[in-house]
Structures are given as structure tokens and as C-alpha cells.
DUF5683 domain-containing protein (Larkinella rosea), 280 residues
Amino acid sequence: MQQHYAHTWLKPLLFFCFLIYTFPAFSQVTVTNIRVNSTDESAVEILYDIAGNQPADSVFIRIRGQSTGLLSPSARFISGDWGQEVQPGANRRILWKALENGVELDENIRATILVKVAPVNGRKPVEAVTTVIDTLPRKKYRPGGPEFALLSVVAPGVGNIFVQSPKPIIGHRLGVTAACYGLMIYGLVERKKSRDEYTLYEQQRSRTTAQPYYDRANTHHHRYYLATRLSGAIWVTDIVATFIKGMRNQKERMKTAEPKVSLRLGAQSGAPVAVFNYKF
């Protein structure tokens, strides 16, 4: 009876222990909820959720450009949740500093996450997970600087389009161009009419017949004066406004730009080190 009782509970116990031992072999690695972003035109951020992986499993990325083909990110420019020892969970993050790696984000790219399953507890080594997502990290528009005031010198209103944020704004600015050139042309036409009338005035022999020509010449000259001065005022105002707006944009870029010279303190092999960086 005792031997029969022992066999009765021993078999389920052994089966339960076998399941516990082999559970990692049956667990399936899954990667879901992939999100790819570009940050400050200089880096690719990949967020993902992962489950079923073990510390010995390896997570890595593969990136391919639409026109440049397969890219080769250097490991020293990649940080975050990649390689081994990646903890299962949501919102795992990989950051590739592409610009520092010498790659400009100006094309459609394909980011692939792969998980290489390690042969732990009877699990077979296999690249079990391949998750692909496309992204188009477009370059962020940067409003122009004071140099666009030179464009307004040639074409009033046009230079001001490119200093607007967050993107170029046309709005009434082409109307400024039309108004300036229109008033200037109108003024020149009126000046010609004024001169023609004054020439006729000088040809008259009597004051009575000459007076109407003089009055018309004076009227045309007055229109010429007002039109050209108004056109010039609008022109100068647009140039000054474009220059001031461009200077503000330039100052804003300088505030957010990364310093060309940087010094970072740290430690390596227990010894203090200083890392000096200079960007051309």
C-alpha cells in the first residue's frame, strides 16, 4: 500500500518538475508595438515591447535606407535596450545617433528588430523574431536667418516667406511684392505723363492755353511722388522686418545648437578620465 501510494503522487510531482524545467523552451519571444521616431534630425529612436525573452537572448537592429541600401550603425553610437540583458516589458528603447555616426536622416528608412534566442535550458538557437517598420524622418524646417533680407531687396515680400515658423508662410507676402512693383511702375508711368504735359506747357504761347497743361503735369507729378515713396516705404519696411525676424531665428538656433566644444568627465578601469570633443 505504501509503495502504491508513493507511485500515485510521485509521477505528478516529476511531471510538474519537468514542466518547470522546460518552460523557457516553450516560451515564445514576441516583439510588438514598434514605434520609430527621428529626434532633432540627428538620431533614430526605436520604442518596442518585448516578452518571453531571457537575459542571454540578443536584441539587435538592422536599418536599411531607401536609396543608400543597408546601413551599418556603429555600436558606439547605439544605446538603450539592445544586446543581451534586455529586460522583458513595455517601452524598451534603442537610440541610434545617426548624425554622429555620419548618416543624415534625409530618406525613407526601414528599421528591423531581431531577437537571437540563446540555447538556454534546452532552447534552440534561432533568430526567432523579426519585426519591421518603416519611417520617414523628414528634416525639420529651420526658419531662415537675416541673409534672407537680401532676397527681399530684389523681391520685396519673398524673403519674408522663408523666415516664418514653423514653416514658410506665403500669406499676403506676394501681395507685398505686387504692391511694391505695381506702385513703382505706376509712379514711373505718371512721371512720363508729367514730363509730356510739361513739354506741351512750354510750347504754349499764352498763359491761358498753357495753364491746363501745367495743372495736368503737376497732378501727374504728385501721383508719381506718392506712388514711388509709398512703394519705397513698403520695400524698406519688408527688408527691415525680414532682417529682424531672421536675427531672432538665428539666435534661437544658437540656443538649441549643440556646442562645438564639450568636455565630459568620467571613469575608465577605475581611473578618472576626461573626454574632449570638438565638432567641425
